[in-house]
Design brief:
This protein has about 400 residues and is of the alpha/beta class. The chain has one domain: TIM Barrel (Alpha-Beta Barrel). Strand 2, helix 5 and strand 3 form a beta-alpha-beta unit. It binds 2-acetamido-2-deoxy-beta-D-glucopyranose (6 copies). One 2-acetamido-2-deoxy-beta-D-glucopyranose binds next to helix 6.
């Protein structure tokens, strides 16, 4: 799974129809998404062939807070909040420096049973609120969006949230998450929703055709407009098939991982500026010109991060470690804010379930916090961003690199 190195980090075609497939490290990396794909296969095989082991796996991996047993059903809804509690004491080490942060609450993998609790999500939100105005969720299962939006009401805070209707090759998965999405929108309204992502790298995993994905994006957008939310952007997180997807999306999202390109941590931020411009922003601009669109759609980094463990899980010069994660944090976060690069840091906290599910230790250790919400790095970047305000759907764009 070690990707081949290539000296050409990206290729810009004059058509602006650059294909990330031509970019070898991304193609051959064992990325989060590749691991997801491999992991999904392992999981399916594992579940089908060895159901017998599942109970012990479950009790080991999903230990929900407050002694509740994991449930096999789609999960309870959180109790409606009746009282509002304050944010509590602020952590002096934390600064709201991250433009956005990717977040998966524990206990939201339906196949393991839904162990998510409002209490744990509230503890997460207390930290998240202090480091970022925006979060991005990966799915609707186990009513995770309810816990997050209800949790914000309980804390009396506002953050912008990207909701994802997860897409895989199983139509049942999509329908389930789709139904939940509309229920959530009816329950909580659109006030805190800054985007709706139809899947994450589903094309990359080859779990959906571009025509199906386009149909889903159109369908959700149409319904959002009908329900009175025409301004909330709808998109997917995938750079493949840009010429077909861009006209249908309100923004172009890409998971950008210098780690999987095998860069030194010291080179990772610079690599990312060039990758984002060359693979995401510039092709989007050129395509808009070609299609005579009067306005170019914004491009956005939906994931950037660095794993902290294990050290032998390196890819060329990219070695997982807390020190290296800190180097990327220190060279990327405030610089990206200054440049106007919109990004979501991957990710808030470690996700222990991935280790077993994907037979890959590294996948579990991308958090800036560990699984118990301890900050891993000695300090975080310090460049305070304002608290998110309702209605702020703005996605900044950096100036072209060479200007
Ligand atoms: C929350 O309140 C709404 C009405 O405001 C009600 O329809 C819903 O059933 C309640 N949910 C729970 C879990 O109590
Ligand atoms: C961040 O910088 C501000 C302004 O310089 C300073 O007051 C604050 O103490 C710093 N916070 C941290 C956690 O370093
Ligand atoms: C799709 O998912 C549903 C519910 O999780 C499951 O019952 C069904 O067997 C799956 N179908 C396929 C083809 O995997
Ligand atoms: C930044 O990255 C680009 C493209 O990968 C490379 O050409 C350039 O030399 C790098 N600059 C520095 C200072 O490393
Ligand atoms: C864009 O405009 C040019 C010049 O007006 C025209 O030749 C071309 O067909 C247009 N392209 C599209 C996709 O509408
Ligand atoms: C898990 O990964 C290890 C090391 O890569 C490999 O030897 C082992 O066969 C894998 N196990 C499964 C169940 O795929």
């Amino acid at each position: 799974m070690i990707p081949e190195h290539t000296d050409i980090p990206y290729k810009i075609s004059s058509e602006g129809s650059i294909l990330a497939e031509s970019y070898k490290p991304r193609q051959s990396r064992c990325s989060f998404s590749v691991c997801l794909k491999v992991g999904a296969l392992i999981l399916i095989a594992g579940i089908v062939l060895s159901l017998a082991f599942l109970p012990s796996l479950l009790s080991r991996m999903v230990t929900p807070a407050r002694g509740k047993r994991p449930t096999a059903h789609p999960g309870n809804l959180p109790a409606n909040h009746t009282t509002t509690v304050g944010l509590g004491p602020l952590d002096p080490r934390l600064v709201r420096s991250f433009w956005g942060v990717d977040y998966t609450p524990h206990g939201t993998q339906l196949q393991f049973g839904c162990g998510v609790t409002q209490e744990e999500v509230i503890q997460d939100l207390r930290l998240l609120y202090q480091i970022t105005p925006r979060i991005r969720l990966y799915g609707m299962d186990c009513n995770q969006a309810d816990y997050v939006l209800n949790g914000m009401r309980i804390l009396n805070i506002n953050m912008g949230v990207i909701l994802t209707i997860w897409v895989d090759s199983n139509q049942t998965t999509y329908q389930r998450q789709y139904d939940t999405f509309w229920r959530v929108l009816e329950t909580y309204g659109g006030d805190n929703i800054i985007g709706v992502s139809i899947g994450n790298e589903a094309l990359f995993r080859k779990e959906v055709s571009v025509s199906t994905l386009v149909a889903s994006i159109r369908d959700v957008k149409k319904k959002m407009i009908a329900m009175g939310y025409p301004k909330i952007p709808v998109y997917t997180s995938d750079i493949r098939e840009l010429p077909k997807l861009m006209p249908e999306q309100d923004a172009v999202l890409d998971n950008v991982h210098p780690f999987f390109a095998g860069t030194l941590p010291q080179d990772a931020a610079n690599w990312t500026w060039h990758y984002f411009y060359g693979v995401d922003q510039y092709p989007t601009i050129k395509l808009a010109e070609k299609l005579n669109q009067t306005q170019t759609k914004p491009a956005m980094i939906s994931e950037i991060g660095w794993p902290t463990f294990p050290e032998d899980g390196s890819i060329q010069a990219a070695i997982p470690s807390v020190e290296n994660q800190k180097i990327l944090l220190d060279t990327f976060i405030c610089q990206a804010n200054r440049r106007g690069v919109p990004y979501f840091w991957f990710e808030f906290k470690d996700e222990p379930w991935k280790q077993d599910m994907f037979n890959e230790t590294r996948e579990s250790f991308w958090g800036i916090f560990d699984k118990d919400n301890n900050l891993k790095v000695s300090s975080l970047p310090n460049c305070t961003l304002p608290v998110w305000k309702k209605g702020d759907l703005f996605i900044p764009q950096p100036k072209p690199l060479d200007s």
